[in-house]
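re: ur question from yesterday

yeah so i grabbed the chain u mentioned. its 421 aa long if i counted rite. heres the sequnce exactly as i have it in my notes:
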Amino acid sequence: MQFSETFAASLDANDKLSAFRSRFFIPEIKGKEAVYLCGNSLGLQPKTVEANIKAELHDWAKLGVEGHVHAKNPWLSYHEQFAGPLARITGAKESEVVAMNALTVNLHLLMISFYRPCQSRYRIICEEKAFPSDSYALQSQAKLNGYEPFDAIREIHPRPGQAHIDEQDVIDAILEEGDMLAMVMIGGVNYYTGQVFDMKRITEEAHKVGAIAGFDLAHAIGNIELKLHDWDVDFAAWCTYKYLNSGPGGVSGVFINEKHASNPKTFRLAGWWGHDKASRFKMEPDFIPIPTAESWQMSNAPVLSMAAHKASLDIFDEAGMENLISKSKELTAYLSSLLQEVQQLPSHKGLFTVITPDKRGCQLSLLFHKQGKDVFNFLSENGVIADWREPDVIRIAPAPLYNSYTDVYRFANIIKQFSPK
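ran it thru and got these structure tokens back, copy pasting raw so excuse formatting
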């Protein structure tokens, strides 16, 4: 009964968030709405984005430089309107978050502040198969400080026969490194497997040995519950073009714990947009940091990009993270149950394994033991937009803001129709 379009439609009829789907443009394939399950790579466009950007273009045309003060949303303070929504999504204080730059740029800026190694404390812990950009950033930060990456960085591997990492191995590594550990920097949700790490516990254990705890939240923000302030996380960064639906290359964001942000002795690379607002335009020679996460800003806001960001955050505020997380759990559980039925088909036994553990957001990663690329191509030919990761994984992410139970059913049914060789 559950494996039917009628049952999926009944779930959609009872979904109190279903109306939000109409607030997004759904791509089409062959004249029909695609089954878009790629929000973990690029979220869909809110329909209000165009009007938001046009409003800024209009103010630019009509006001020129005066738009910094007199635009409908003054550019001078444009980023400030995101403090509330981002704080609600990340479980932070408004003073601890700011929208700025791009993700890897922000990770570098944060690590320059918080990876402060010395001869006796220089080691870094991260997860194996982190997103490559994270690995590159960590390697270059080690080199910047005079260390060889192979010596400075300890990657935590999955145990033999296991795709995801056992969290106890992360904790054990922290304890083993002890006084030598300078920083833990892990993806809050692993991009490849979809595993959610216990950021609270990792932070606690890192602090016990005197280390800093930071997280890349690219696949976590807008996807799972975050309580960065209560967890006492030191720093975090994220992109906004995945679950936050803010457009390709959309503006990034950062979290900096208030104990660091309010301390003028915390080192940060200085730029004029991070300077004390009351005296910023006096153009004085000495940098006075704003006593918030804003002091990590270096340049004025990319307003056109942020206009798209605003469109999505307005929808998040309306929907509410608690409601989105609740639907996400139900939607992904439904997908999981359908895939289990597909795996029991005589023709499909041994075709794939779901490698995402139970601690997850809305992503399921399917490891194909054979014909993975054939399945991916079959999905594409039949109206599904998913994500292929070499050499054998298809990532699926039913985003609760715009995906439906019918989307999930259609995806599973198309895999069911595939004829393995």
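noticed a couple things. The domain at 5-33+321-417 is CATH 3.90.1150.10 (Aspartate Aminotransferase, domain 1). also The radius of gyration is 22 Å.
anyway ttyl
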